[in-house]
Write the structure tokens for this entry.
Amino acid sequence: MSRIWNFSAGPAALPEEVLRQAQEELLDWHGAGCSVMEMSHRGKEFGSILGQAEADLRELMGIPEQYKVLFLQGGATQQFAQIPMNLLAGRSADYIVTGSWSKKAFKEAQRIGNVRCAATTESSGFTRLPVAEEIKLDPFAAYLHVCTNETIHGVEIPAERIADTGVPLVADMSSHILSRPVNVEKFGLIYAGAQKNIGPSGLTLVVVHRDLLGMAPLNIPTVMDYAVMAENGSMLNTPPTFGIYVAGLVFQWLKRQGGLSGIATVNAEKARILYSAIDDSEGFYTNPVDPDAAGVLGLKGHKSVGGMRASIYNAVSLEAVQALVAFMNDFAKRNG
Ligand SMILES: *Cc1c(COP(=O)(O)O)cnc(C)c1O
């Protein structure tokens, strides 16, 4: 068996320790005599897996009691619709558009109700954040939506730089959730598809302030109603049990790395060595590289922007990034 250096954008690398534990427990989870995939979601075994996953996530992110943690399905893309369905309540909402994901969220919300684009950087190719004077906020908006890390365009909004606007802040954190500490209390709702930094695809995480529950109109589908999901502990129907289990193993792995501040230190070092390799190459890496030749995976750029990208999520080790940088330097030397 040989595992490759994996820089996939999502689904993405998982910690090897987590995969090994899942493998070890696959046929017989803690003496249950079956796999997590095969047990009832209503049984006490799965109840303990879900409870532990939520407790560990609350501890890692410092999620206060007045927030509900929901383990849902449908990906971040479903949230693009579910958020306005639940939170608009006949009003309007503001969207800041800084890349393709927030643009998609905005477009989807337009199908549900009345939403405004409060700022967009599309005319500058989504390569920067909007400056304060460009942002036109509605003080009566039901919420303000942002994408704190635009995975395709690479624009990140550091949470500490978001000012309080007086309306609930809703954030798509799909690609950098759990990568460093965040002040959850700044947000009304945080959401993320699991397959970047949490676990396998098929699980979607929503952290929502309880004041935002129960505002949905009566005609929305039951399964889409956050309040119903919260009342039922994410188990109105069958949740993505195996995904929740693996996410729980990832949360425990993160705790062993020193929590979010521990992993943030490693992430900063990974980013530093990768970006300095790119900067030192003086534009060399605008050329496509055959990923098979390097034993790395996922270096082909997103179809909408081209080029190359390496996703260095939590589970991508410092060793993997060092291997990539060594390859880049060697490749540049041989071909420059
Ligand atoms: C990957 C990604 C999405 C889409 O996620 P799905 O779970 O596939 O719907 C949305 N937003 C961001 C920021 C992403 O990185």
User: Anything to note?
Assistant: The chain is about 35% helix and 15% strand. The radius of gyration is 21 Å. Residues 36 and 242 are 6 Å apart (CA to CA).
